[in-house]
Amino acid sequence: MTLTRDEGWQLLLEWTPGDALRKHARAVEVVMRAAALRYGAGAAEVERFGLAGMLHDADYERWPAEHPARIVAWLRERGEAELAHAISAHYTRWGVPYESTLDKALLACDELTGFVGACARVRPDGLATLEAASVLKKLKDKGFAAKVERHEVTTGAELLGVELATHVDFVIGALRPFAAELGLGGRVG
Questions:
Q1: Is 136 exposed, middle or buried (0-12, 13-18, 19+ CB in 10 A)?
Q2: Which of 87, 167, 172, 184 could form a disulfide with 157, with the two C-beta atoms 3.0–4.6 Å apart?
Q3: Helices 81-88 and 101-121 meet at what angle, rounded to 10?
């Protein structure tokens, strides 16, 4: 891997002017770094997993109709075929096969990370006391965070071979230490 985190972050800042999508990118990066260890990829893969999480939506804000083609092409030009493939597969309806743990983890972590964030934002104490049962209950409410694709959440967990409740617990736990940075620490005062 030749792409560094700093280079990836600079691209994200250049291509993604909005704070909300930058925070989502950072949140998925955090979860994906933890996923490298949790789902058997190992310590050597933490950076790669983090980069996939950080860059998966890098082109979405400026070029939504082309998403994810721009970031995939950018990565391929730099010899980052594995990252490009994982990002091209992070939505099941695109029909890209899931060939690696990286591919499966990005699908499993992306939408769920956003959904967990939405759950935390409506709680007075944010992520501090959020539990999987609350998230699973909110997943059944199609009106809550309606843009989150529930099918992507369940399919990702299935591909990783993990129970959804267990994966939700994992995502909450991965995000909790970063709650303040991500704006998920709850309401102040």
A1: middle
A2: 167
A3: 50
| Dist CA 111 CA 36 (whole Å) | 17
The SS3 call for residue 67 is coil
Q: What burial class does residue 154 get, using C-beta atoms within 10 Å of its C-beta: 0-12 exposed, 13-18 middle, 19+ buried?
A: middle
Cis, bond preceding 68 (omega within 30 deg of 0): yes
Rounded CA-CA distance 149/33 in Å is 22
Element (H, E) at 5: helix 5-15
Q: How far is CA 47 from CA 19, 30, 53, 62, 98, in A?
A: 23, 10, 10, 25, 20
Residue 17's H or E segment, with its range, is none
